[in-house]
Amino acid sequence: MLYAILCYHDEDMVGSWSKEHDASVMQKLSVVQDKLAKQGKLGPVARLLPTTAATTLRKENPPLVLDGPFAETKEQLLGFYLVEGKNLDEVLDIARDLGEANPGGTYEIRPVGYFNQGGTKA
Fold first, then answer.
1. Nearest residue to 2 (alpha-carbon basis) of 108, 82, 92
2. Quick count: other Cβ atoms within 10 Å of Cβ 43?
3. Each residue of 22-49: pLDDT tens digit?
4. Per residue, what are the HEC states of the chain?
5. Is residue 116 exposed (0-12), middle (13-18) or buried (19+ Cβ within 10 Å)?
6. pLDDT given for residue 120 in this prediction
7. What are phi and psi of 16, to 5 degrees?
8. Least confident interval from 16-20, 48-52, 58-62, 70-74
9. Distance (Å, rounded) from C-alpha 74 to C-alpha 49?
10. Residue 56: per-residue pLDDT
11. Cross-strand bridge partners of residue 57
């Protein structure tokens, strides 16, 4: 089963990390990612740019386009993992490993159902 691990954290806190601290966290995460890749369980991983780069489309009549994130929250969605797991318990173990590499914040885990398996065409 495919699961999404959505990574939430305080964007201001993460943005205030020194380049050295950020590189250290990314290195620790890469250890977990490498292990998952070798096991054939790692799908796409994305680190999102800051919410200041976001654009929101509100589905009103007519639709409204806004600069910035949809809502002001304490924690922002900063990235995600797609992982293969036998069950939720296995994915919780993966999320715990990620949490040890990058303390703080929250991981939301959701099973993924395919809507359209098509890919992009060159």
1. 82
2. 15
3. 999 999 999 999 999 999 999 999 999 9
4. CEEEEEEEECHHHHHCCCHHHHHHHHHHHHHHHHHHHHCCCEEEEEECCCHHHCEEEECCCCCEEEECCCCCCCCEEEEEEEEECCCHHHHHHHHHHHHHHCCCCEEEEEECCCCCCCCCCC
5. exposed
6. 53
7. -90, -5
8. 70-74
9. 17
10. 82
11. 65
Q: Which two tokens stand for residue 94?
A: 């993966």
| Residue with tokens 């900063």, as numbered in its chain | 78
User: For the packed helices 19-38 and 88-101, what is the interaxial angle rounded to 10 degrees?
Assistant: 150
- At residue 75, the pLDDT reads 83
Unique residue bearing structure tokens 């943005």: 15
Nearest Cα residue to 105 out of 80, 81, 77:
77
- Find tokens 């740019």 and name the residue: 49
Fold of the domain built from segment(s) 1-109: Alpha-Beta Plaits (3.30.70)
